[in-house]
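Why does residue order matter? Because the sequence determines the fold. Keep that principle in mind as you read this record.
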Amino acid sequence: MKEEEIKYLAGLLDADGSLSIRSVKSVRSTGKQYAQLRLSLFASHSIDRHGYIKNLSSMFGSVFEDQRGCHWNVSKRSDLNMLIPRLVKHMVIKGAHWKRLFDRYSNLQGQPLSDEEAIELREFSNLSRKNTGPVKPKNHPTKAWVAGYLDGDGCYLMRKSSKNNHVQMSIDVAAHVDDTVGIEFLQKAFGGHINKMTDCNAMRWKRNLGVRDRGFAEEFLRNCHRHSRLKKWKIEQMLNFHRTSRND
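Structure:
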């Protein structure tokens, strides 16, 4: 994987990926349990129209499909050793958490776990997940990370008013209150507003992408379009509107 692809995947995993550590019994050592680390990512068929998730298995892990969509899982130690260190340095929300899990997993390599240690491992994972943020402070999001994060948690909105045919366009991102570091990073870089969502324990970042902010919108959308794998078609609709409305 090239570095730009890693940055995109880091953004997508910040939104929709999960990394879990648990104890599993070994088929070779009867009765003994060892730490297992598993990376997981899911995308529905309606979103992943071109098989991006499925193609990930040609490089790392495995994929299985069901009626809902495609599931990508990575649990082989050699794959994790190559992939996780590259991902965490670009992640904004789960980077520090994933590094802690990977470090613990590496330290426990080959060591059988007692029942008490297995319970402590679960508690460590749950506590770590609440402490979000990057491995190191970041000044500005990369274009590829932004595209990946928005492919996961972003909603490109484009709707026409029934009263005056005015077209409203924006990008919205909803984040759980424990994961607002991502949308705060976006607001710092691109402006917009963050508001509390009334119907759930989450916050929402919203940034106008309409005619009023055409200069910003076109550059922002072009950068996202260049790296997007899952929502490129929606971005193309918005870019096309800006092109055609400029000529009206």
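The CA atoms of residues 225 and 235 lie 6 Å apart.
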